[in-house]
Write a structure and sequence with these properties.
The complex is a heterodimer of chains A (313) and B (152).
Chain A: H1 3-13, H2 24-30, H3 32-46, E1 52-58, H4 64-70, H5 77-84, E2 85-89, H6 98-107, E3 113-118, E4 121-122, H7 124-127, E5 131-135, E6 138-141, H8 142-152, E7 155-159, H9 160-165, E8 178-179, H10 181-184, E9 190-192, H11 199-212, H12 224-227, H13 238-243, H14 270-273
Chain B: H1 3-28, H2 32-56, H3 70-76, E1 79-81, H4 83-88, E2 98-101, E3 104-107, E4 118-119, E5 122-123, E6 126-127, H5 129-136, E7 146-151
Parallel strand pairs in B: 1-7, 2-6
Antiparallel strand pairs in B: 2-3, 3-7, 4-5
Helix pairs in contact in B: 1-2
The chains are: A alpha/beta (313), B alpha/beta (152).
Amino acid sequence: MSADIKQIKNSWEVGLMSTTKTCPEYTARFQTASDLFIKVRDEIKRGSLVKKNLVWLELTGCSGNIISLLDGANPDFKYLISQMTDFVYDNSLMAAEGEKAMEQLMDITNKEYILAVEGAVATKNNGLYNIIGRWKGETVTALKAITMLGEKAAHVIALGACATHGGVSAARPNPAGCVSVQSVLNRKVIKLPGCPCHPDWFLGTLAHILLYGEPALDSRDRPLLFYSTLIHDRCPKRSFFDKGIFAKKLGESTCMFKLGCRGPVTRIDCPIRKWNQYVNWPIEDNTPCIGCAQFGFPDQMEPFITYNTTREV
Amino acid sequence: MNCYESAICQKIKTMVAESENYIDLLYAAPCIYTRNILLYQLKTKMNEINFLSGMICCQVNQIQASPTELPQQNQQNQRNITLQELAKFNGKDGNLAYVSVIGVVYDVTNNAAWAAASHFGLTAGKDLTSEFASCHACQPILSKLKIVGKLV
């Protein structure tokens, strides 16, 4: 139990609930990833946790999720690839190239592995719009790679908007016929929507899998550890909404509902966890939530900003 | 209303918000046991609300407060709205935001899910019956909205 929670518990016991301390729910949820990581680290030290192979497959996307992961703190990327998992394959970061890199990817199919996928699956012309490599002289499309690796993986974790529901890659007019990973796999796919996925959402889910197996998921296969509340429900500007005090332009510190904030329809813990190693997040910087962690982003979350809601003519 | 009654009203409001939260959780809960626990908590909350409301409106006949009366109350402020009139209530330029579902026109101007009068790519000022049916069928969310009229 962390020092903060202990302190709050002590204050309850003596009947002196502090009004200046952070709410215990915030404290506990802020620490989900670090709590899980500490358990993983302890078990690795004791030798009671077996490292698993991790394959990171990038399909049709922007590499945003792997870049986001490099910013992870619980654990940091070095620990993830050296201690926590055997990081077998990632096209952006691995040292091997060409056929040698593909060999590592193909070899894994005979072993047990966890598959992390970012990017949507381009399906037009039998997947020809995205070729991820060549193997024995033949091109390997993203579609072929995901169907082959997805079926044999112990767990499939789809990260980011594109992998979970098509996202930006499947936005109108969707020239490459992009679809979600789930659309081409007939199995359970854990979904971590977000553009990009927060390192904690992935690392916490991975740590949970290593320690206890698949975490509890909601009806759309998102881990409840992270996706259980709406941004609006934990928004620091919520009191402005309740009182009907609305910002008319960016940068104003009141509720951005009239500017088109998507916090009320977006289910994720950004207000508690924040970004860039827990520093800040859009709403606290007075720009509206664009709903990047909600299914349907970006098309269904547009327009991202609206100025003529309150303007009277 | 004396301060005793307003305290009870405040408490009821809190409990209604809690009940709504339980309903939201029910949608998110994947496991039948969790759902059963939530349903039990919801039932308990309803009983408490019933008890508290009984304390402040003991003069009011139970039958009068029954749900069958509610539509009649709503009818008092109902007016007929055509599709053309509805289109003006698009939430832009200071206009209110209305949408209609199965012939009933609702006000979504200050509904949280309708920021800037748009919701998952849909805009206000339209009849959204089929869109509603494809996403929210069987969800008791319309009752939370203010009814403003009837689509004719």
